[in-house]
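User: Batch of two.

Assistant: Item 1 of 2:
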Amino acid sequence: MQAMLLAAGLGTRLRPYTLVRPKPLFPVCNQPLLHLLLDKLTAAGGGRTVVNCHHLAGQIASAAAGRPEVILQHEEEVLGTGGGLRKAMEHFVDGPVLVMNGDIYHDINLSGLLAAHAAGGCAVTLALHDVPRFNTVRVCGGRVCGFGQAQAGETLLAFTGIHVVEREVLVRIPAQGFFHIIDLYEELAQAGQVGCARVDGCFWQDIGTPTDYLDLHRRLLAEKTPTWEISAQAKVGAGAIFSGWGAVGTGAVIGAGARLSRCIVWENAVIAPGAELADQIVLPGC
């Protein structure tokens, strides 16, 4: 399996946190999201994977170091979801390419998605599910027929950010500059060439905003028995109290008597003694 992981976005809705770290490197239960996504690709039989980067590119490069399957693609300008794919085309052989956004956490069966693409006979297959907040993909007759407001006989579904595209399709993307892949998919949908693979019931969470990022941890750590994921390399002062759910990363220092509830403390962050925090993302130096 050949793949591309899109990791070049600016993450403007996550500022000021993305001024410190690019969105694909946000820790999820103390592990960088990028590593979790690359592990999913490997588990599904992934081989060559292009990871593009632009914003804080050096951090992405460091995080991908030591992974021989990764080809790092540094983009001097923002190329968008389509422009990045077109630039990466030289690294792909003929056949399907699995594309995944670098700002989602999920348990979607990637092997199943590839099988659905092969069986569907379309140039592109989108992994879709029903999430009303994000439902913008028009589906009819088992295929994608467009994007936007549904028309008679159509169903609206949400795009997971995971899709399979035949390499030959990428030739249709302009060779230079910014391009939004959905613009091309809109054209292909009119020709009946965009398939729909339903993944309803999967665990899926976008981390596009601070609220979404905290909500991902709530779902992971509190839907059954609320718990805290505290690194063995964190230092916790006497009398510190943890309530609800949360995570504390490697090298973090929690001062004596601090009270934390529903917080994500990044590695090497410091919480002052006696501090009381709730529903917070805590970075080093804050």
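Item 2 of 2:
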Amino acid sequence: MNAFLKDIKTFPLGGVHPQEYKLSADIPTEKLALPKMVSIPISQHIGVPAKPVVNARDKVKVGQVIAKNEGFVSTNIHASVSGMVTKIDRVLDSTGYKRDAIIIRVDGDEWLPEIDQTDEIKREISVESDEIVKKIAEAGIVGLGGATFPSHVKLAIPKGKKADCLIINGVECEPYLTSDHRIMLEKTEEVLVGTQILMKALKVEQCWIGIEINKADAIAALKKMCVQYPGIQVQPLKVHYPQGGEKQLIKAVLNREVPAGGLPIDVGVVVQNVGTAFAVYEAIQKNKPLIERVVTVTGKSVLKPSNLWVRIGTPVQELIDFVGGLPEDTGKIISGGPMMGKALNDTEIPVAKGTSGILIIPSEEAHRKPMKVCIRCSQCVGVCPMGLEPYLLMTLTQKELYERLEEDQVLNCIECGSCAYTCPSDRPILDYIRLGKKTVLSIIKERNNKK
């Protein structure tokens, strides 16, 4: 690791360093066995839900489109298994709400013939820029870092804007998650070819892959191989949460400041997750849509922490069974990491495109401590990477002062949870800010509809 310290970078404002429990970092990925049934949500992305194009009793193959995008900010949904569609019904997802899903009874594992299932690495990129974006849209690829923003939308640069740099996010700063780490180690060259494809789509000649130095083996592997890929460089980063936030990553790597309310493209940058880069490789070079992903299943009491290749729609319970079942001291199950993840209230919830991890937390750590009064210590202000005043945003939400909440830039909150993590009074600051953001967004939408 010492070899990387001379050019290490980070973002300058706020942030915390939660204790790490990368229990599965050294554990190679394994393929999870196919379940008997999958429930594939038609909304696994930011934007408009896809529209089902199959009906009950239809037979489908792996990779077949089963729901078509319903607009520009939407994505296709594909069958992750072969079998028969039993019904289209509402099922619980990770939000805790019931949403439409296509339920398929698994029968064998028959793939569409045009999908290349071999392990041969295809390095030559024969597809042109516009066709790349089109194929990424058709493949249903979204940001796999958790935000699930449709990837083709990021690649469609608005008029008047220009990208000059691509950043691949390999930070994975959540304390327990290791799925991106394993992809960088096991699919190194595929990630680099996927990165080249993204660069070609954007028509840029420069790319940085940002990785925190707690993944020294991934940094070494990519540095060694990227010499064969012109324009791609690896940037070691300090272990500093939330280093993986787009704005923090851009500041760390390029020292460019995304303006308040702005997007990375406003400073000439597009950011894509390392898992997304691999999915792009598979879509363009192998004709494989996004039907599976790596999910970290972990926790201090978990018998066998693992990184699993999982078909989309697989019940979370199947992943838990693979790692030895729920420990006796289980207090909470979280989809994602402890900082930004959300608690699950049912283990039959299906794995979706944005499911990066399943974290099982012991009872002694799962219960909230009683909320005490704010002591005005300003620790939440000091750690906020967006320069906000979290204690104030919580108070404004409690008092339902939504106009003031909008003025005080609640929408700029990236929901990293640093404020709640550091609060000595155990105040659920992030919960209130999320509620405030949701309400303000609804008010803005209503206001715009009246114009």
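The CA atoms of residues 17 and 240 lie 6 Å apart.
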